[in-house]
Amino acid sequence: MEELIQINYEGEQPYVMGRELHSALEIKTSYKDWFPRMCEYGFVEGKDYSSFLSHRSDGLPGKQRIDHALTISMAKELCMIQRSELGRKFRQYFIQVEEAWNTPEMVMARALQMANKTVEQLKQKNNELSLCLEDREQQIRRLQPKARYVDYVLQSPTLVLTTQIAKDYGMSAVALNRKLYSMGIQYRVGRQWVLYARYQDKGYTHSRTIVIPRENGMMETKMQTEWTQKGRLFLYGKLKEEGILPMLEKEGEENAGGSE
Question: What's the CA gap between 73 and 15, in Å, rounded?
Answer without folding.
Answer: 9
